[in-house]
Amino acid sequence: MLRQRSKWLVAVGGDMGVDLNRVIEQVSKEKGIDRTIVINAVEEMMHSAARRTFGPERNIESRYNNEVGEVELFEIKTVVERIANPASEVELNEAHRKYDPDAQPGDEILIKLDTATMGRIAAQAAKQNLIQHIRDAERKQIYNEFKDRKSEIVSGIVQRFERKNMIVNLGRTEAILPEKEQIPHERYRQGDRIRALIVEVELSDKGLSIVLSRTSNSFLMKLFEQEVPEIYEGIVEIRQCAREPGGRAKVAVYSKDTDVDPVGACVGMKGTRVQAVVQELRGEKIDIVPWTDDQAELVCRALAPAKVSKVIIDEDEHAMEVIVPDDQLSLAIGKRGQNVRLAHRLSGWKLDVRSDSDAEEEARAARASLNAIPGIGDINAELLYQWGFRSAEQLADANENNFEVEGISPERARQVVHAAREWVGRKRAEQVKRPEAANNLAGTSPAPDLIPAPEPGAPAVTIEAAAGGNAKDAEAE
């Protein structure tokens, strides 16, 4: 290619033995750049060289002559009757004699320049300018090609590694797969083929940058789109996806056609479709659940394979308390909390998973705390518990003006809150007094023995307990 560029410059310099058209065609084909862009680069190259040779004050124009296969240089001058600026003007008589017999004052004429007068330094500068223009044009064309391919899976060859980042050859250009976008524990070697998702395409002064990812949720979704025709055709939708790359993923799917089972479509005959995705992700386990607009039901499905006993929803906190059987607790939480984390990401709700026994114990403690408030009663305590109150302290902190509990009148609600505050206040006061009383006791003399020590020489006293638990009479020996 360097040899061809050299021939190109010779041709521009006046050697008509080389067909510049052929060189342009070859460069255009090899670089994948439009022929017009290459010609513009050649014209710009010659224009830059001409300004270096003839001076920047002269108005010079470069034009590519397709018929003869060379770049022609012209100086633009204005026809005047008397010259004031020789660099930009030509006298009328000279214009009639040399260039155009019909020229009139004010006309612009093109005066062809001899490119052979351009020196070696100007030619070398022109060459560098041309190379830069070709590179810029190539980068821009590749950018235009890849910018519309964002969120698309591409295949490439592992070229090399730079600080744990993987450089992937995509054919016409290179892309980078950063360490954070690589699936943990995956191992690739130079020359291996790899598939990844294009997540970023940028063109800056530093050049073209294409960033890939194998850890994004979109990569998993695109893999399913390639493997499942129903997703590609829009019959089945992936509504939500959550991943811990290399470990486990959960995918919520929905079918627009009631006759199409979304889960079955994604799994495929004997699991062939989902297994193809699992193999691409190097064994990442995938749970596919049917989507539902019922958020509590969605959480129950997302926690599968664990079974759920009950779900308590807190709309204000956007949280759910999930109760599961005791033998399902570890299954619901998952290894190192993985299952509940993925369910949280899939649903978007904060999740607090508890076992039945823990929930029952907490419920007993909560009801006891509420029932201990004077005047509350069992019925009101149960209503308060069902409404989400778990302690007397929580009830005492409630705003009685915005206090609404179904089954309790507003007036009664205010009384309940005031009673809770009084009760909590008394408890706290008692807790303050107890340490003070203990400190006072620590500073007093010890209490006298209830049974005095016997006089010297007096008979010993023995106390025995009867079988029935009653003490016998003391007998003197």
Task: Please specify the SSE layout and strand pairing.
Layout (H helix, E strand, L loop, with lengths): L1 H11 L7 H12 L3 H20 L5 E6 L4 E11 L8 E3 H8 L8 E6 L6 H28 L5 E10 L2 E5 L4 E4 L15 E12 L2 E7 L3 H11 L1 H4 L3 E9 L3 E8 L6 H6 L4 H9 L4 E6 L4 H8 L7 E5 L4 E6 L4 H5 L4 H10 L2 E6 H16 L5 H10 L5 H5 L13 H33 L35
Helix pairs in contact: 3-5, 6-9, 10-12, 13-14
Description:
The protein is an alpha+beta fold and 477 residues long. The protein folds into 4 domains: 2-142, N Utilization Substance Protein A, Chain:P, domain 4; 149-213, Nucleic acid-binding proteins (OB fold (Dihydrolipoamide Acetyltransferase, E2P)), CATH 2.40.50.140; 217-291, K homology (KH) domain (GMP Synthetase, Chain A, domain 3); 372-428, Orthogonal Bundle (DNA polymerase, domain 1). The chain is built from 16 helices and 15 strands. The chain has helices at 2-12, 20-31, 35-54, 92-99, 120-147, 217-227, 229-232, 262-267, 272-280, 295-302, 329-333, 338-347, 356-371, 377-386, 392-396, 410-442; strands at 60-65, 70-80, 89-91, 108-113, 153-162, 165-169, 174-177, 193-204, 207-213, 236-244, 248-255, 285-290, 310-314, 319-324, 350-355. The strands form 4 sheets. Strands 7-6-5-8-9 form a 5-stranded antiparallel beta sheet. Strands 1, 2, 3 and 4 form a 4-stranded mixed beta sheet that branches. A 3-stranded mixed beta sheet has the order 10-11-12, with helices on both faces. Helix 3 packs antiparallel against helix 5 (120-147) and helix 10 packs antiparallel against helix 12 (338-347). It is elongated, with a radius of gyration of 44 Å. The N and C termini lie far apart (126 Å). Residues 1-18 and 445-477 have low confidence and may be disordered.
